[in-house]
Write a structure and sequence with these properties.
The structure holds two protein chains of two kinds.
Chain A lengths: L1 E7 L8 E9 L2 E10 L5 H4 L8 H6 L6 H15 L6 H32 L4 H6 L4 H22 L8 E2 L2 E2 L5 H5 L2 H19 L11 E6 L10 E4 L4 E2 L4 H4 E4 L8 E4 L5 E2 L2 H7 L6 H10 L11 H21 L16 E9 L2 E9 L5 E7 L1 H20 L4 H13 L15 E4 L1
Parallel strand pairs in A: 6-11
Antiparallel strand pairs in A: 1-2, 1-15, 2-3, 4-5, 6-7, 7-8, 9-10, 12-13, 13-14
Helix pairs in contact in A: 3-4, 4-6, 4-12, 4-14, 6-8, 8-11, 8-12, 10-12, 11-12, 13-14
Chain B lengths: L12 E6 L9 H15 L8 E6 L6 H5 L4 E8 L8 E5 L20 H10 L6 E8 L11 H21 L2
Classes of the chains: A alpha+beta, B alpha/beta.
Chain lengths: 431, 170
């Protein structure tokens, strides 16, 4: 009997800790577990007893790549409890901040984490060492830096920004400060359009499993901060009904919860789901860039998430420029909130998918309980289901190639993997 | 920071203190660089801006542009090599000399000193001289504060580095 065993007890270079175990015997998968289990962090527990104003700053520490998402979901949820109405100017600045995060996060993933998989490089570093691809890496780094610069300007610093808070911003940038970034943003827009065309030339495995795609949907715009929760299977619910439909499951092999849809099981959240469900909300240049790829969307091929991500970078640059052109500095920059007992939840679209926050406050404004569902927890079950469907397709390949394809499949989801491309090792055991 | 198009680079030397100050001895790099900065800023000559100082919990891609803008980078970091805690290791960096975990860090993130320098080299952004100053760590357990053996050598290490800089920039 031949046993193929992919057994990685500790996956390096993912945010948190995890393992992948696959055992195939005589062509049949006997065992498959993907755990991206973050170290026990107890955020939901130690938020209890904290004042609501601390929630955006504390939850931002959950992620160094998408802290804005945590600040946005927590602020909106708490504002709902406290009946805080933000001004249109604050709303626009929040969307601009989110554009910055999408740009830096997506550019990082496209060029440094995902592209090496498609092009057969061990890492972005070896990709950069190839004279033919060095310009692409340089372009990606500059695109990312523009996102970081915009984030630092609005947020005070690029990682774990200081300014965003419940009710708005401690300080809003001046129009002059934002206008100074326009030339770089215009360069970034051009570069992002080229990026879409570039990703479209990559080689995509033929793989289109049937699954549910879930994202926010807003009547007037591509979703970031607001919307209803919709899916390709007809789901259309307010955010407040999220917990009725989406269940937190504790599975024995993972410290991270698996979130699944009560009616349909695993589902996908993130750029591919957002794009598929919001094609009609794309900005003009993003729409044009997507059409020119020749790829058919909606698409359920998870490998094409790199195209979706690139299209969203065009959209983010386009939106950023539009918002800056129309920018009016919010006065005041922050709406004061008075403590009040109540319950509230909110979802925003983090770069890698829906981020759900729910809080319960007492009349002093102290947090009684909270629940946070990160996008990676929502996608984890989908990743495993993908691997079940995909592994038989790669069994005939040499082991290195088979492992690479499994890694690439996982990286399609951008599961907060840090700046390295290889995190799995293949061990073959002959019995 | 000056533009990369200028012939003169922004700094003769860039001091980079790397380490998480909430991971015990991993904070030694930032602490040494902070003390050298205080010394440098006390000198009359510091107005020339010849030396840049950066303190970071872990390397960031943003450092690539800074590296391209200096003649020499000196990276001060905690290391683990099996030597007695507090030992100072001084080496010129060469490609391949740092292992996967050559510089042990508390963070689970993978972009470390090795990746930073490899990426800078691949992109042609490496300064002409790259020096690693490693201080042997006793512990990188969570928590603030250096272990006694490492705390003892912080001041002397900062002095050695200050004298080195003084000789370097006559």
């Amino acid at each position: 009997m031949t046993t193929l065993r992919i057994d990685v007890p500790y996956m390096a270079r993912v945010e948190g800790e995890g393992a992948l175990n696959i055992i195939v015997e005589d062509g049949e998968i006997k065992h498959l577990e993907l755990n991206i289990f973050e170290p026990p962090r107890f955020f939901e527990a130690f938020l209890r007893g904290r004042h609501f104003m601390e929630a955006p700053d504390i939850t931002a520490r959950i992620c160094g790549i998408c802290p804005v998402a945590y600040q946005m979901s927590s602020s909106h949820a708490i504002e709902k409890i406290l009946d805080v109405q933000i001004s249109p100017e604050i709303r626009a600045l929040r969307r601009l901040l989110y554009c910055a995060e999408w740009i830096e996060s997506h550019a990082l993933h496209i060029y440094l984490l995902h592209a090496p998989d498609f092009l057969g490089y061990e890492s972005a570093i070896s990709m950069a060492a190839d004279p033919a691809l060095r310009p692409a890496v340089e372009m990606g780094l500059r695109m990312k830096k523009i996102g970081n610069d915009l984030l630092a300007l609005i947020g005070g610093r690029e990682i774990h920004p200081l300014s965003p808070t419940v009710g708005g911003f401690y300080r809003a940038p001046t129009r002059k400060e934002l206008l100074a970034l326009k030339p770089e943003l215009e360069w970034g827009l051009e570069a992002s359009i080229k990026t879409v065309a570039w990703t479209a030339t990559l080689d995509f495995p033929d793989f289109e499993p049937d699954y549910e795609l879930v994202s926010l949907r807003h009547p007037d715009e591509y979703p970031m901060n607001e919307g209803r929760v919709v899916s390709n299977l007809g789901l259309d619910i307010p955010m407040e009904a999220f917990e009725e439909h989406f269940i937190d499951d504790h599975v024995p092999h993972s410290n991270a919860v698996h979130v699944y849809h009560r009616d349909h099981g695993s589902y996908l959240t993130g750029p591919l789901a957002r794009l598929n469900l919001n094609l009609d909300k794309l900005t003009p240049l993003a729409k044009q860039a997507l059409e020119e790829t020749g790829h058919q969307f909606p698409s359920r091929n998870p490998f094409k998430s790199i195209v979706a991500r690139a299209v969203e970078v065009v959209l983010a640059y386009e939106e950023a420029l539009r918002i800056i052109d129309a920018y009016v500095r919010p006065e005041p920059s922050r709406i004061e909130a008075e403590p009040k007992a109540g319950w509230g939840c909110h979802i925003t679209e983090a770069p890698r998918g829906m981020l759900y926050h729910r809080y319960e406050l007492d009349d002093q404004g102290l947090i009684l309980s909270c629940r946070i569902d990160a996008p990676t927890a929502q996608n984890l079950k989908r990743m495993e289901d993908d691997l079940w469907a995909f592994v038989p397709q790669v069994l005939a390949l040499p082991h290195d190639e088979a492992t690479l394809r499994c890694e690439q499949l996982v990286r399609n989801y951008d599961p907060c993997i840090s700046c390295a491309t290889h995190f799995l090792k293949l061990n073959v055991v002959e019995k | 920071m000056s533009s990369k198009n200028e012939t003169r680079r922004a700094w003769s030397a860039l001091l980079l203190g790397i380490g998480n100050e909430w991971a015990s001895d991993d904070g030694v790099g930032p602490e040494v660089v902070r003390r050298v900065k205080v010394w440098w800023e006390g000198l009359e000559r510091n107005a020339t801006g010849e030396v840049g100082f950066v303190i970071m919990a872990q390397p960031d891609l943003a450092l690539l542009d800074l590296l391209a803008d200096c003649d020499r980078v000196i990276i001060v970091d905690a290391v683990r090599s099996g030597a007695p805690p507090g030992t100072l290791h001084r080496q010129a960096w060469e490609a391949g000399m740092l292992g996967d975990r050559g510089v042990e860090r508390a963070s689970s993130h993978g972009f470390g000193v090795r990746e930073l320098l490899d990426m800078a080299r691949a992109l042609g952004k490496l300064p002409p001289r790259v020096e690693l100053w490693g201080v042997e760590a006793a512990s990188t357990a969570p928590g603030r504060g250096l272990s006694p053996r490492v705390a003892e050598v912080v001041e002397s290490t900062a002095q050695v580095l200050a004298e080195y800089l003084a000789n370097l920039l006559p």
